[in-house]
Amino acid sequence: MDLSTFPQSLSQPKKGFRFALDSLLLASFAQPKNNWKILDLGCGCGVIGLALILKNIQLSLKVWGMDIDLHMLVHLRQNLQKTKIKNYFPFIGDIKNCINIFKKGEFFDQILLNPPYRLLNTGKLSPYENKNQAKFEQKTTLNDFIQGAKFLLKNKKELLLCYLSEQLDYLMEVLVVNRFRVKELLFIYPRLNHYPKIVLVKAIKNGNPGLKVLPPLILYAHPTQNIYTLEAKSFCPFLK
Which of 6, 166, 208, 233 has its CA 20 to 30 A from that of 22? Predict the structure, then answer.
């Protein structure tokens, strides 16, 4: 698939939850190695896993996409047909039931996760249930996702996440409880002289101490217009 048509041409719900810029940034943050097995956890329509494959087309990767929402997986299968990608394998499943799904843990080399950002009752609910499920900790909590990732990830391998920067302390607390060591933080600023809204996180299962805060990424060059900086377009080739 030509990168010039991605991700605008992807199939996704016309109403309710639709992927946003943070998914593309998370995929661009990943630096997989050849022959890695990767899980796109809570994959939705598959934008993160597909972007990861397209950005690293020279590598031989196998990517699995797991989601609890069957309707989102229908869109994902349509996107696999559109992109003609053969090394992405979607399946339906609840992360809280991952032990029964996989039987044996420590299968993946890398897991990418863009979890619900907000606790229930901390924002306005949408009339669309799939949007609420993606935005709020309802049936599945952050700890559920991290516990599942711990079971599925090989020892010393990496979990990559996108999260609200204002709730980084909560995320790090859950990671530490589940024996993940945060190794890299990349704060994403909408514009110069603004506060960061999201942060990209790399955590290692049973990792050693040593945290690196990367130079900040500023998305927009203009104070009022959404014109991407050269640094943002270099970091994420899907930004137009």
Answer: 208
- Within 8 A by CB and 6+ apart from 2, the residues are none
| Closest alpha carbon to 45 in 6, 74, 81 | 74
Query: Model-level pTM?
Result: 0.91
Domain ranges of the chain: 22-235
Residue that wins the pLDDT comparison between 149 and 125: 149
Q: Tens digit of pLDDT for each residue in 143-200?
A: 999 999 999 999 999 999 999 999 999 999 999 999 999 999 999 999 999 999 999 9
Q: Are 110 and 161 spatial neighbours (Cβ–Cβ below 8 Å)? A: no
Inter-residue contact 28 to 235 (CB < 8 Å)? yes
In this structure, the dihedral spanned by the alpha carbons of residues 73, 78, 79 and 82, taken in order and rounded to 10 degrees, is 170
* Beta-sheet pairing, 153-164 with 118-119: unpaired
The answer, yes or no, to whether residue 132 has pLDDT greater than 70, is: no
* Residue given tokens 């990608």 in the structure block: 85
**Among the listed residues 171, 20, 30, 28, the one whose alpha carbon sits nearest the alpha carbon of residue 111:** 30
Instruction: Specify the DSSP class assigned to residue 18.
Output: -
Question: Has residue 133 got a pLDDT over 60?
Answer: no
How buried is residue 172: exposed, middle or buried, by Cβ count under 10 Å (0-12/13-18/19+)? middle
Amino acid at 115: P
Do 132 and 160 touch, CB atoms closer than 8 A?
no
> What is the CATH code for 22-235?
3.40.50.150
